[in-house]
Structure formats: C-alpha cells, structure tokens
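HUMAN: Forgive my ignorance: could you write out one protein's sequence and backbone structure tokens?

ASSISTANT:
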Amino acid sequence: MLTMYSTSWCGYCKRLKRQLDDAGIGYQVIDIESDPTAEQLVREANNGNATVPTVVFPDGTVMTNPSIRQVTEKVTSAA
C-alpha cells in the first residue's frame, strides 16, 4: 500500500487522492500538519521542502507530486 503525505488544503493532493480512488489503488494518507515526524520525512525527501503530495511506495521509493500515470506505472511494475 502507498503512503501519501498530504495537507488538508493541497489541491494537488486532493486530485491525486481522487485519481487513486478512481484507479482502485490503495493508499493511506498522513497529514504532515498534524504529524511533525511525517513533515520531517517529507522535508528529508524533498531537499528541505515540505512539498506535498509526497508518495512513498512499499519498496521505499519516493515520488513528489507524481501524476497518476507515474504512480500506476510504478505500482504495475512492482506487481
């Protein structure tokens, strides 16, 4: 299952969540504004920036603001 680091106000996050739902790809969401540890993880993955959505795949790879196509390709290649 994917982990998406997000905020409540992020339009890109809302779009990706909707697209993941439509594609039937399972994910969990962690709001970095409520979880300082999650925010730090996102900053470490993004050169100090709290850029969302940041998606972490089960194999540990990370994508920042990925398209649904990028996510689908990654999930399909891992299957």
